[in-house]
């Protein structure tokens, strides 16, 4: 069965963006060592327009063949004129308001958790959850794996990893990798 992996950048204090959702400040930590890791281990998480100039557009997907993102994440690409930001994967966007997008992008306007459960039953690589706190909160019970890229930065307040009601969920640490720039990448698997 396929896994849903929340692959996310986060501050030390657990925020994925400032109060408005802005997260560009994380990019200053993407140095040669860390970027090399992303290109080798998670090449499919780099958007198609970025893969082409890097010369890695030919690389096969290693971990994911499907991406689901929220409307806010998708609109960042639309603002740049990109309607199919992850053309190297099957693309889904959870939104109750978007219409008329690229035919390569499936809009999920109904029960997003039910749609993810359907995707998990299919054959293939994993499903990459790329989105904001609200989508992650809706899918929290479907998340099988967390890949948390913690950046050496404290925000104080902002957008949390999950916009969900309080309920404990347990995950076990599977791997931990540190980089010279202070970034730590931890992978957790759901225990129950």
From TrEMBL:
Taking every annotated instance into account, which residue ranges of this chain make up the domain Bacterial bifunctional deaminase-reductase C-terminal? 2-185
Q: Name one Pfam family in it.
A: RibD_C
Q: Which domain of life is it from?
A: Bacteria
Q: What is this protein identified as?
A: Deaminase
State the organism named in the record. Answer: Streptomyces camponoticapitis
